[in-house]
Amino acid sequence: MNDMTRSDAASGELAFFIDLKPSLSDFRADVLAGLAKPQKAIPPKYFYDQTGSEIFDRITHLPEYYVTRTELALMDRIAPQVRALAGPQAVVLEPGAGSSVKIRKLIDALDAPAAFVGMDISGEHVRASVAELAPDHPDLVIGAVCHDFTQDIDLDALPLPEGRRVVFFPGSTIGNFELVDALNLLKTLRGWLREGDALMIGVDLRKPGSVLEAAYDDAEGATADFNFNLIERINRELSGTLDASGFTYRAFWNPYRSRVEMYLVALRDMEFEVAGHHFNMRESETIHTENSHKFTVRGFQDLAARAGFAPKTAWVHEAVPYSIHWLECGRKP
Fold this sequence. Notes:
Blueprint: E1 3-6, E2 16-19, H1 27-35, E3 40-41, H2 50-59, H3 67-86, E4 91-95, H4 101-109, E5 115-120, H5 123-131, E6 141-146, E7 165-169, H6 179-192, E8 198-204, H7 209-216, H8 222-237, E9 247-254, E10 259-266, E11 270-274, E12 277-281, E13 286-293, H9 297-306, E14 309-317, E15 322-329
Parallel strand pairs: 2-6, 3-13, 4-5, 4-7, 5-6, 7-8
Antiparallel strand pairs: 1-2, 8-15, 9-10, 10-13, 11-12, 14-15
Helix pairs in contact: 2-8, 3-4
């Protein structure tokens, strides 16, 4: 059974909040399993505790980190076309809803949208972030759902008004997934939608390695701080004994796999414990923390087509190659 609360949108509160009680990942189990692998790795979703989220917000404002400002500029340019494609009374859903800057821009571009629903695995986070929109949009049905967006959901079970459903997935988050997982996520999102609905998704494109490496290893050191905060979180929450001074941060462009790879690199041989488990690392051994895949327009459209979408339009920011795709849903097989 789902927990649902309803309130008056005109009063600046959410129209509804639904907790689908997604299974929470086990930080302890995932870290222990990752550190036991031959190539040590920690899932990047664990970057985003409160401190990590604050550091990431700092990253989005850095001169080297082009993604946010480029996507926002492209959204400004394509607003009339998005308005025409979505049509009136659209119902917008944002998996992984966070900062409200981009969704505000989209809502303002649309023709009398009927509703906006933000989704995230953290119920407290998504409820708070989505509620910030309500006072400025009293005529819009605004709701929040606690849900793991990598999993299926029956949107017909939500109290949504009639209208074309548009899933909005900005920020090239799709690039953080291994390609097989990106395909599976696209298939999941396609499964949410009906014939005639659409997915609007931001996708970063290949560009010179020097530009990419600067974006993910900035001169100010914010991205390094983002990674070192993961060590602090492990030490704090899992009784870890990792010595942060024994690591350095490295990001590099791997052209063969078309992705930026991010690592914490051991500066010396070391031993440490996490949750009572003992680990060793040799000098120059690495902990893989994140990837950011970069696509071509055609390559991503092919991936989307394999997931069951029909690519309709792709807009590209030419000065700093970045794309936003409008993918439509035909009849399901």
